């Protein structure tokens, strides 16, 4: 913390204020704001809590941040605040890594089971009161490639392994003997490895290197029976290429929780494809998650006030928290 007076904290939250802020308000001057008032709230503020983690308004108001030394975002992904002026500054950026790991892993296991057991069709037939026997798939022994080896990817790997699936990872560097993935392939070799997997799960952070990672060439490299799951960022995928791959039977299905444009426009063709499962960016949102996000920030806020090292410090050049930090 700078100086001995109560710090000034700007909180970008829109109409929904974060819960359980009383203990923070007792030791800081807190300015709650929406996007329109963000510039005014930033003037003279020492820190910024981006509670509205989907907002991209920080870049446009950053010119007013004359004293900000620390920014915390209430999500694992930091791309909404990775604009050049912040990235190139000496302002410390932290995130909420760890809050959503297990919840997102449960979602991924759930949609894999939904595909294998044809649950969407069962619900449809039930509504029509139609008795139609089918055979389903096993998930045990199926091969899964998790693209993104951070904490969420690791939680996914552990849960899918516990369900009997064979899981590998894909990260910046290839390595063997990983405690969660066993084998980790290098991202540069994505197209070489995609043919060997039944499910591909995208959970990589959004960076210049990963934007549009899943385009026509990636979907063409997958086997025709493969399913694609995206719980990372919508911009990891070229949506038009995914739609074409699904329509042409190039891949068997997709479960999508994130999209290039959110909310997903009602005229988007993904809504009408029978082999697609859509959820509205909720794979990690368990009951009580908002309180947990504030708890993570509050612990870091206390550390910041007392001069202790902050948790979840983002390497702004990489765009995520390096392993071990």
Automatic annotation (TrEMBL):
To which protein family does this belong? Belongs to the D-isomer specific 2-hydroxyacid dehydrogenase family.
Task: Enumerate the spans annotated as D-isomer specific 2-hydroxyacid dehydrogenase catalytic domain.
Answer: 17-314
**CDD domains noted in UniProt:** 2-Hacid_dh_1 (cd05300)
User: Has keyword Ligase?
Assistant: no
Which keywords belong to this entry?
NAD, Oxidoreductase
Q: SUPFAM superfamilies of this UniProt entry? A: Formate/glycerate dehydrogenase catalytic domain-like, NAD(P)-binding Rossmann-fold domains
Question: What protein name applies here?
Answer: D-2-hydroxyacid dehydrogenase
**Domain D-isomer specific 2-hydroxyacid dehydrogenase NAD-binding spans what residues?**
110-283
Q: Which PANTHER family match?
A: 2-HACID_DH_C DOMAIN-CONTAINING PROTEIN, D-ISOMER SPECIFIC 2-HYDROXYACID DEHYDROGENASE NAD-BINDING DOMAIN-CONTAINING PROTEIN
Q: What organism is the protein native to?
A: Amycolatopsis acididurans
